[in-house]
Amino acid sequence: MCSTCDYKRFECKNGKLEQGLGMGSLVIRCDENGKNYRLAVNGESKSKFVLYRCPTCGSKLY
Q1: Rounded-to-integer distance, Cα 57 and Cα 17, Å
Q2: Cβ neighbours, 10 Å, residue 8
Q3: In the Cβ-directed half-sphere of 22, how many Cα atoms lie within 13 Å?
Q4: pLDDT tens profile 2-58
Q5: Left if phi > 0, otherwise alpha if psi is -120 to 50, otherwise beta: which for 2?
Q6: What CA–CA distances, in Å, run from 17 to 35, 60?
Q7: Which of 33, 48, 50, 51 meets the CB 3.0–4.6 Å disulfide criterion with 37?
């Protein structure tokens, strides 16, 4: 795992783990057990979609 998909490095926000990606408003989120990764634009609930592989290292996320 890399720093993008290592959920142990994420911050806990509202019962979900979350980390910002890059300099923009993209965030990666998952459950507290490291399942159900999603990529979204911060503050836009309709923008989220499920990730099956890490966009940085290619590790499986399911």
Answers
A1: 19
A2: 7
A3: 9
A4: 989 999 999 999 889 999 988 889 999 999 999 999 999 988 889 999 999 998 999
A5: beta
A6: 10, 18
A7: 51
> Could you give the CA distance from residue 2 to residue 9 in angstroms, rounded to a whole number?
10
Which residues, 6 or more positions from 37, have their beta carbon under 8 angstroms from its beta carbon?
5, 28, 29, 30, 50, 51, 61, 62
Q: Give the DSSP per-residue string, 17-34.
A: EEEEETTTTEEEEE-TTS
φ, ψ (nearest 5 deg) of residue 2: -110, -175
26: its two tokens: 């993209």
> For residues 29 and 27, what is the distance between their CA atoms, to the nearest angstrom?
6
Whether 49 contacts 56, CB under 8 Å: no
